[in-house]
Amino acid sequence: MNEKHLFAVTALFDTPDEIIHAAHETTSAGYTRFDINTPYPVHGMDKAMGLKQSRLGVFALVFGLLGATSSVLFMTWVTLIDYPLVIGGKPFWSWPAFVPVAFEITVLLASVLSVVTMIVLYFKFPNNSHPLHDTPYMKKVSSNKFGICIQADDPTFNQKAVEEFLAKVGGKEIGPVFFDLEDLDHGQHIFDPKFIGVLALTAILVSGGTYFTFNKLLYMEPFSWMSAQAKLKAQRPSDLFTDGIGMRRPVEGTVARGFLPYPFKGKPDEAAKNLVNPLLPTKEVIDRGKTKFLTYCSPCHGNFARGDSRLAGQFPNPPTLHSDKVRNWPDGSIYHVITEGQNVMPSYASQISRDDRWAIIQYIRVLQRAHNAKESDLK
Amino acid sequence: MSTAALDYTRELPVVEGSPTAAEVDATIAAPLDQFPSRMWWIIFSIALSFFSIGVFCIGMTLYKGLGLWGVNQPVSWGFDIVNFVFWVGIGHAGTLISAILFLLRQRWRTGIARFAEAMTIFAVMCAGLFPLLHTGREWLPMYLSPYPNQHGLWVNFTSPLLWDVFAVSTYFTVSLVFWYVGLIPDLATLRDRTTNKIKKVIYSLFSLGWRHSNRHWQHYERAYLILAGFATPLVLSVHTIVSFDFAVSVIPGWHTTIFPPYFVAGAVFSGFAMVQNVLIFVRQAFNLKHIITLDHLEKMNKVMILTGSMVGYAYAMEMFIAWYGGNQFERFVFLNRALGPYAWAYWTMVSCNVIFPQLFWFKKIRRSIPAMFIIGITVNIGMWFERFVIIVTSLSRDFLPSSWGHYTPTFYDVGILLGSFGLFFTLILIFVRVLPVVSISELKAVIEGGQPSKH
Amino acid sequence: MSNESKYWKSLRELHDKDAVGELKAHEFMDGVTDDFKMSELSGMSRKQFLALLTASAAFAAAGCSNYRDRGEIVPYTRKPEEVTPGVPNFYASTCTGCEQSCGILVKTREGRPIKLDGNPDHPINQGKICATGQGSVLNLYDPNRLRGPEYGSSSGKSGTLTWKQADADITRLLDECAKTTKEIALVLHSVHSPTAAKVLSDVSAKYPTTRLYVYDLFNDANRRRAWQLSYGSTEIPSISWEKAKIVLALESDFLGTEGMTIEQVRRFTNGRDIMKSKDFNRLYCIEGAMSLTGANADYRLRLNPSQQLGLLLALINEIGLVRKKGSLKGTIPVQASGASLLQFANQHSLPVEVLNHLADDLSANVGRSIVLAGDVLPVEVHVAVNYLNEMLGNSALYEEKKSVSYSDHSTPSQLESLVARMKSGQVGVVVHVGTNPVFQLPKEFGYEEALKRVAVSISLVESTDETSRFCAYVLPANHALESWGDFNVRTGVYSFQQPVIAPLYDTRQKEAVLLSWIQGKDSFHETLYHEYLMTHWEKTIFPTLNRSVDFKSFWYASLHDGVVAASDHSTEPSRFKSDSLSTAIPVATDGYVIGLTRNFYISDGTFANNGWLQELPHPISKVVWDNYASISTRTAKELGVDNNDRVEISLPHGKQTVPVFIQPGQADGYVSIEMGYGRTNAGPIGSDVGVDVGGLLSKASIAGARVVPGAKIVKASGQYELVTTQEHHSLDDTFVKELHLKREIIREGTLRQYEKDPTFLHHEKKELFNIAHDVEYNGVKWAMSIDLNKCTGCNACVAGCNVENNIPVVGKEQVQRGREMQWIRLDRYYAGTPDNPSLSHQPMLCQHCDNAPCENVCPVVATNHSPDGLNQMVYNRCVGTKYCSNNCPYKVRRFNFFNWRDNLAEGYYEQEPISLMHNPEVTVRSRGVMEKCTFCVQRIADARQHATEQGRPLKGSDVKTACQEACPATAIVFGDMNDPKSDISLYRAHDLGYHVLEDTNARPNVTYLAKLRNIHSENLT
């Protein structure tokens, strides 16, 4: 059983003139905790109640300025700092183009935030409860009566005196309004679990919907993100071929531009005889040879071609390239070995381009010379 | 009130007769309390079937692609953008009536403002549909919002289409807020009237605990003023920015500085015509003839003469500038409009927008419901064709004769246009059944004896 | 710091050794190891876990796979030396699209051909090929190709069979024929390959009853026969075009469809290169149908082709007798004397002053001019042309190199007797070696009926056609890119063909199939013809070349280069027989004259199922996907028809209903129709495209003139929509007339005007200003220039671009709606009157404007400017507002209104083989995306990568765009405009250079060089 507390004493009036008069009287009688309820705004009521001007305008100004400056700064940052792009030959910071967006943001923030401020700050949303709700008084002021309501928490409140006062100023249907203590709540309800619950539910629905939309729905046929392309990139499979491999081998016996077949297949002697290094030992060539040597040859032959590689012992040991045999080989022989392979060494033809092979040979010659430097080399 | 007795020198009463506040409540809330009539259901099902045609066409467009439409190279924009500009234009009347007439203290706006605002919102919803649909990849609208994509790329702030995104969404939001703020006291009144429990919960929820308290009224009125203050430049800006879609481009016939004022005038023109058309039915259907009076309609017709003449002036001025400017491309475009393959559209536009509305100079026509209804419809047809003429004729024959083309709409184009009308009227029909079509509190404030006598 | 820590991984390790030591001991970070206690681990091994993980991942993937797998890679197990994934290879080969047999370079990626271009080492086509050649790569991947041998309808069986079965059956049948001395008929196109000719002689040797029938739908038989009459040889020399100051083309489309077009275009336009010389050649064209040659002529007169002989006689008379010029020893033929040029001009309302100019020019350029007659004209005209050329001493321009042929065309009577024998059952086996006589032979022969009576008919084709429909065996042949071969169309020039991919399906090379039949059971193996070719060369041809290297080296080097130059046969210069002309007299005819001409792109119907080629706009009419009857405005009025009406054309041997197209510049009373269209069994793309006018061909015309007089034409009922890519604007309508000149889209002048005042184009200085500062481009900035003096309008650039950039085919219906997708197009403008229009071509592509209007308006920055001055398009950022296209003054942007590959012919081009053809370096655009020319940005990126690899700055000359590479006239120049020494800088600064629509201040980066017409007056018109 809830205890009934007195909230206020109310009275109703029939015409706007009467309620203005009553408001005046109430103000002059010194009541401060009172309210006028009218179905529509009655002109002159603010003055009659002695209310100060609404400060909402100040909020609107602040929000508007906030919108204007933030949007301009944002666009400036985007176009000037974060990702400058030449668009239509215009300067990066094309401020005249920012005007429309800045204007819209200003209006949007100023108007929407002002209303939100009003609702939250002045109407105390989401707190909807009030003792006056669902009273006969409320039903009437909602329609065609004008009401005054002097609250019990007014410092000079005295139920009897108030009722008499109201009767004096012409009020009708004077009566008290009670409230349940439990319902008494003037505070903000933004942190009310129910309210938060509703917000959370909304958040879940919205984010779930968003997740579904962005991760599932939009990837369904027929929507295309162009990730599946009707073309065959390197190393991709293809169903057209029975082996499923998209990359095909060139037809036997054909010659691609720049790839004349190696004429000395299995003929090391002829290679030695006929092949001549087309590259001169310039710095560029040797540098290139060094890079390629370190990439392809050094794992076995060692960084300095001594046959002392990091793989030593795991395979039959690769030979040093500083042996007399190799030193006395013509370039063509080395080329042949790189191209065809020898013993355990496989062919490096598909890894090392033809020019690179010759460059490597030049580098090997440098290494050999360095390893067996003669007196004269120091000069 | 007889026509002959009209005296324009005196301010007319906003409401005919002197209904009491309680009567106002009863009249306006009546449609909300009754079960809809058969006529309503018939009209509603027609609207709904139009809407479903639109839904079908939209679905097919999403599934197959824009190729279903008549758009091509060079006419890459067709019905889609025509409809967009058309609906945004319709959407101008509401906020204009609410905001600008409010600031101008035009009390006659009271009877029609709420309805016009609702129409604004619905029209902007219809309008918003088209920019989304007209993109080739309708599943990527989020690319238009300013966030950096995976490559850090932002949106282009120099593109009028982006301005559109901001303008239309802001306009929609602010109009919605404006409309809702206006509804709060009425929802409270409805809450206190209703005996239905479910309705009560809903009204309670949306009336935000409104108690008609004067301490709230004070802020409320200020907020309303602020909104009106902001909405006024906003309403002018929206169609200005929509006109930038064309004015900022280089295409002859689009590249014109006259567009912003001309578009705004045209928007108001068509918006008023649409509001007038629909109100004629609403006042009839819901016995609101004394609240939405013939005087109101007449005033709207007067606004239409004004804006229609502005539009006519703009047409003439375009022609003049094209000739006087001496740019051969420009000249050609305007000659082509009047004499080329789309001349029929041009002359439809001119007659509907410039010639017919001039009949409103006659008081008899201005105050005749059937006449104004027909003229209102022609205005809307004309304004639709205005956008068609601007968009299609300019694109179909631009700089290089080699790439001239012809635009022919398809079933899907027409279907989506019908669908947008279906959506619009479906929403309006629902609106008139669930919310007060006239602002109760505002109306009470302006009936005779509604304000203190000394004030 | 301790001495031990010489090397450290991080500053922390360097300074805080203890902490790091601790970390190292635990290996894992705090928290990672906390839950990681061995004792608590489950008994599952890592392998088991991985297996489970894989399984569950597979289930998950199968259960909710929204999008296709994008991760699988399949590398080579043994990488071929020449292939590097992602890097293209090039193979020299030979194009078999037509009888020109151009040398090509095939670009392959990972062993798959993706693009064809000319082989720069080839002496005839020198790095260029035509549009058909460019587009022919699509035929390799055409999903309509046969994938294995099939039974045809007349076998009484259906379904597929194996090669083994087919070979067994056929060799048995052939042997039977040999025994019963029934004829074995091989129906072929003309043979240009020495080794193929050897195969055929081998077949004849093995089966003595073999007879060869050779025909070509389009041929130069008349020219050859005339040459035979005039010079006693059918080998026609090539012409020194560079020396020809005056060219007179009589119904001869040497710039479009006749002869060695690639070579002719190159050598002819070389004489119109303003950067080299102001001494242009002058082209007169007198023709009935508007051809590309007529479109590019300095003077073009229209004349009904039936009157060409009269004109020639009048010219001979005028020059030889009246002016007494020319050096002909011999008599002027009787019928020429007294044929007055003036009278002829008046009779056919030709402008006298132009004919006088012509006579003057020819007389003044003795030995420096050339007269050509078209393939469609009768032998007498060709003989008269030979006579005129001889008279003018133009035989000085005949080169030593001559045409070579390994087969003679069958005469109409031979074909007639074939048909008769087929009907009477004397032919046991008929083999169609890549031929389609049911479609291509004149219907008058009744080949189809005859074929149905032959017991065994074999079709050796790439895909089913009208002939294979009636055959017993339909055997799939290799595509040219899967074949070996050698070609020799000009003395001393051998061109090799090598396969660039193993056969995609169970197909065999035609020559190998024939060989396997004569070599007996199961003799076929993959390298059969390869070996045969090598042997033939080694044994027969190589010894005649007198090379010092061994055969192997020669062979590989030749394959590498693609061509072998042999020393010329030292044949005696032919002697002209001056009496050859004596009998010819012009005859008057009544009725309409029908000309059955060669189409531009689909050849004799072979390329009908090639969407790219069907969609290439006709260079003159811009009609796509159709042929039609071209008529003049006056003829249209006479017949009471308009565009898209249909007419019925009746000739004694057949009739056909054809849609009508009113062609400005068409001669009155002359109706020209292109052949090769109207195939009925060409595949989903090519069937029922256009009208088959084979019924109008007479038996005689297969080896003779395809200009047929005496036709009756009446209007037929019904309409037929012809679709053009360019709206047809009336030339009479002053409202739109010559807008391209008024708007300075096309700027032209005359050579004389230019000589007098080189800067005549820029007298009106326009001042354009920006309110903002121009963006500065340092480094390379790309630009293009197009020389309108050289551009002939042949569409090779369009075809090249299509292949390079994965341009989709949209189909006729979509082109009708204005949705064609080609990134570069050839705009054609008419000026003047409908009777005597002057034509201008203009390749139009994205202009890559500095102040690009498209960029401003894109809300999502999907199009913006690159630092090297490209207007670039970010496909996957595009949402498809189409605003950029609206705002493009040049309307060069293209929108994917549908997924085009899916939309056309029930997803025909969405099938697997097509994806193999697409350039892997270019995005395949989805629906809803805007696209446009990128200046081949993938090639730029490639060149930049190469330059970076080689450690040098990127040069403008490193990049060639696809259109530039394709242009046979080298009208397109591309490069770095910031490099003052580059070609492009010279072109940009040239007096004739201009930009289209300069007024918009978009600052395009494509410079056009104004066209100069080499006419006698200083002013145009």
What would you note in describing this structure?
Chain A is an alpha+beta fold. Chain A has helices at residues 16-28, 45-49, 56-82, 98-122, 136-141, 159-168, 193-215, 268-274, 283-301, 324-328, 331-340, 354-371; strands at residues 4-13, 34-37, 146-151, 172-180. Chain B is an all-alpha fold and 455 residues long. Chain B is 69% helix and 0% strand. Chain C is α/β, with parallel strands linked by helices and 1021 residues long. Chain C folds into five domains: 11-63, no CATH class; 150-217 and 409-565, 3-Layer(aba) Sandwich (Rossmann fold); 221-402, 3-Layer(aba) Sandwich (Dimethylsulfoxide Reductase, domain 2); 586-724, Beta Barrel (Barwin-like endoglucanases), CATH 2.40.40.20; 739-767 and 776-1013, 2-Layer Sandwich (Alpha-Beta Plaits). Chain C is built from 33 helices and 38 strands. Mean pLDDT of chain C is 87; it is low at 1-5, 23-36 and 62-67. Classes of the chains: A alpha+beta (379), B mainly alpha (455), C alpha/beta (1021). At the A-B interface, α1, β2, α2, α3 and α4 of A face α1, α2, α6, α8 and α16 of B.
